[in-house]
Amino acid sequence: MSENDVLSAKEWIEKAPEDLKMAEYLLKGKFFNGVCFHSQQALEKILKAFLIFHKITPKKVHTLVFLLKECSRVDSSLVEFMPEIKRMDRFYIAARYPQTKEFNNAEAQESFRVSGELFAKIKERFQGI
Question: What is the DSSP letter of 60?
Fold first, then answer.
């Protein structure tokens, strides 16, 4: 792995917690759709960091299921997260646009919790950067 790959993956890892912090802030303000969106974004960033760390250029997609499948080609044990990833995937579009689902407090709490847990577990898979 080149130094640039490590730096790039590290940049993604450092950026992702901003989304978790934003989700936490929005949760306090009861902006539930924003919580769901930023929770999804944190996972998207950590999955892309994982790919970059393993010298795979991530496609410009926002689908967590697709990204996890790409990551599981490197580490097959990541497929254990697929059920949660599928649930989190729905937040990218539905939480951002008018005339889509309005998420409630319970859904926002769950998206924030799942995102934080998966973020930590995925990050553990490539410690040392």
Answer: S
CATH of 3-124, one of 3.10.450.50, 1.10.10.10, 1.20.120.330, 3.40.50.720: 1.20.120.330
Separation between Cα atoms, residue 43 and residue 117, nearest integer Å = 10
The answer to whether the beta carbons of residues 57 and 51 sit under 8 Å apart is yes
Separation of alpha carbons 20 and 26, rounded Å? 10
Work out the pLDDT band at 15, boundaries 50, 70, 90: confident
- Tell me the pLDDT tens digit for each residue of 90-125: 888 755 666 677 889 999 999 999 999 999 999 888
Kindly report the CA angle at 71 between 122 and 95, in degrees rounded to 5? 70
Q: Are 33 and 59 in contact (CB under 8 A)?
A: no
Domain boundaries, the chain: 3-124
Residue 115 CB: number of other CB atoms within 10 A? 26
pLDDT for residue 76: 94
**For position 97, what pLDDT does the model report?**
64
Q: Do 107 and 36 touch, CB atoms closer than 8 A?
A: yes
